């Protein structure tokens, strides 16, 4: 089993979009997947409820003490994907403690990059006492198609001393359109969206392969 959290204390950076598409991609590869919605507004819950035939199981754990029990509760799944809360330090800290890998989506804007600072500090503090777990990495999300990422964006993220994935997630209408129906880009015909999401999944899996945990 591997627990993947999609975290950033700043709202609007694409956490739910990435979480739901990540979970669906893993499911389509034959894995058993559970989505955990830890965000009080319940965006992942709304996505799940919009499609009564949704193949992904979802639970709500929006209190820190509940998140702490996740590892044992989710032992029968290959992957658990936590859709992280925004601005709730206790929830974010609880997710970090149970995670094997943390994906940090950031928009290519200074405010979003700065907002990740406290989260990186939380992660590094945890890594110091757990032999480097959870692993963590950045993905630049909601990039406007046709624009170039400035080198200063990646340079700013590099200062956090965490990997920055090669893949970027573009701001495409297919993401909200499919989400409104409880679907993902894998249910649509947008080749570019499928390709970038698949590339992100491949990068994540390559990074977390050494830390997939055995659960009795």
From TrEMBL:
<dbReference type="InterPro" id="IPR048089">
    <property type="entry name" value="McdA"/>
</dbReference>
<feature type="domain" description="CobQ/CobB/MinD/ParA nucleotide binding">
    <location>
        <begin position="4"/>
        <end position="184"/>
    </location>
</feature>
<dbReference type="Pfam" id="PF01656">
    <property type="entry name" value="CbiA"/>
</dbReference>
<dbReference type="InterPro" id="IPR050678">
    <property type="entry name" value="DNA_Partitioning_ATPase"/>
</dbReference>
<protein>
    <submittedName>
        <fullName>Peptide transporter</fullName>
    </submittedName>
</protein>
<dbReference type="InterPro" id="IPR027417">
    <property type="entry name" value="P-loop_NTPase"/>
</dbReference>
<dbReference type="InterPro" id="IPR002586">
    <property type="entry name" value="CobQ/CobB/MinD/ParA_Nub-bd_dom"/>
</dbReference>
């Amino acid at each position: 089993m591997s627990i993947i959290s999609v975290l950033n204390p700043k709202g609007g950076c694409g956490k739910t979009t990435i979480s739901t598409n990540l979970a669906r991609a893993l499911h389509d590869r034959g894995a058993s997947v559970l989505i955990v919605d830890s965000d009080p507004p319940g965006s992942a819950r709304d996505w799940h409820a919009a499609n009564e035939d949704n193949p992904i199981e979802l639970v709500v754990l929006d209190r820190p003490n509940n998140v702490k029990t996740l590892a044992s509760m989710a032992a029968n799944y290959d992957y658990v994907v936590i859709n992280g809360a925004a601005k709730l330090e206790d929830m974010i800290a609880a997710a970090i403690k149970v995670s094997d890998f943390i994906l940090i989506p950031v928009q290519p804007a200074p405010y979003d990059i700065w907002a990740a600072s406290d989260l990186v500090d939380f992660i590094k503090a945890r890594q110091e006492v757990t032999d480097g777990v959870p692993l963590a990495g950045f993905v630049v999300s909601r990039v406007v198609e046709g624009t170039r990422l400035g080198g200063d964006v990646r340079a700013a993220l590099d200062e956090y001393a965490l990997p920055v994935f090669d893949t970027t997630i573009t701001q495409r209408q297919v993401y909200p359109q499919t989400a409104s129906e409880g679907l993902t880009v894998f249910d649509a015909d947008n080749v570019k969206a499928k390709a970038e999401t698949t590339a992100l999944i491949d990068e994540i899996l390559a990074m977390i392969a050494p830390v997939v945990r055995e659960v009795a």
